Amino acid sequence: MGVEGLRFVITGAATGIGESTARVAAAKGASVMLADITDEVGEGVAASIRASGGKAAYAHCDVTSPSDVEALMRAGAEELGGIDVLHNNAGIHETGIADPSMCDLENMTVETFRKVLEVNAVGPWLCSKYALPYLKESDLPSIINAASVGSVSAYPLCIAYGTSKGGIRLQTQNLAVDLAKHGIRVNCYGPTAIATSMVTEFVKQADDPVAFEKSMTGKGLIPRLGLPEEVAELVCFLASPEAGFINGTYIPIDGGQLAWHGHIDELDL
Ligand SMILES: NC(=O)c1ccc[n+]([C@@H]2O[C@H](COP(=O)([O-])OP(=O)(O)OC[C@H]3O[C@@H](n4cnc5c(N)ncnc54)[C@H](O)[C@@H]3O)[C@@H](O)[C@H]2O)c1
After folding, report:
1. According to the model, what pLDDT value does residue 202 have?
2. Is the shortest distance between the CB of 239 and ligand 1 below 6 Å?
3. 264: CA distance to ligand 1 center in Å?
4. How far does residue 59's CA lie from ligand 1's centre (Å)?
5. Using CB atoms within 10 A as the burial measure, which of 44, 170, 231, 234 is most buried?
6. CATH of 7-194+227-256, one of 3.10.100.10, 3.40.50.720, 3.30.565.10, 3.30.70.920
């Protein structure tokens, strides 16, 4: 039970939540194919998993490139002997590729808007498309997409990201319908701010980083940044046989942020 023996392909696995998922899944006995565009870092993570006794390999893959994605799935299936789990994790935020002052409607370039949609929404679709022949051969196939609280609620400077993550939530439901006939479950999850470079680099740019981080976590019933390992555990659960009746859904992992309307100062925490 759990993910022991399952074969994972994880995109964006060189850092952050993807890296954690690779490490946690491998520690639980899964074999993992890591993919990213930062090859040296990704190779290093795979090597360190192998050094700890885990089964891991790395392949370069830009999820926006059909030829890269097709080659990744082929390599993953060859390396691992098949694919059971596709974790569509690679993602970007507009504030990570453009100056925040250029991320409102008036100033954002068409290229920035398109790039975010291309990586966050087209990329997972491409990966699902090219993983499908291998997933069809699996006894426990599933696709797990990285959505976000930005899939279901808005926040400042997030119009491209929110559009892409709202899209991936609906892509998840549509794929679950399409792939039900193959017994492939498709789910997504929605983290709030998690302590990865996507968030910490943005926080660092603020005039008062401590106050800014507090404002980010200030609505959560658990008022702190989430940990990448906490998201990795959810991904492993969704991939496992124990989650065999969970399909086509969005699971929040947000410290209770979206559970209520209010501010943390109103609570006696
Ligand atoms: N960190 C958060 O607060 C948070 C919250 C909600 C959702 N998410 C989602 O979780 C996922 C992982 O985020 P993270 O916080 O670990 O970010 P991260 O920036 O630490 O990691 C993202 C990884 O994706 C890779 N990547 C970027 N573009 C790529 C491409 N075209 N092809 C392949 N790989 C590419 C990067 O090189 C990086 O290794 C993303 O989809 C993100 O939107 C993160």
Report:
1. 86
2. no
3. 28
4. 17
5. 231
6. 3.40.50.720
Q: What is the pLDDT of residue 178?
A: 98
Task: Say yes or no: CB of residue 20 within 6 Å of ligand 1.
Answer: no
| Poorest-pLDDT segment among 11-20, 225-234, 239-248, 253-262 | 253-262
Which positions ≥6 away from 192 have C-beta within 8 Å? 149, 217, 220, 226, 253, 254, 255, 257
**Of 68, 198, 253, 257, best ligand 1 pocket probe by most atoms within 8 Å of the beta carbon:** 198
Q: Which two tokens stand for residue 14?
A: 């060189």
What are the catalytic residues? 161
| Least confident piece of the model among 80-94, 136-150, 158-172, 191-205 | 191-205
Calculate how far, in angstroms, residue 262's C-alpha sits from the geometric centre of ligand 1. 29
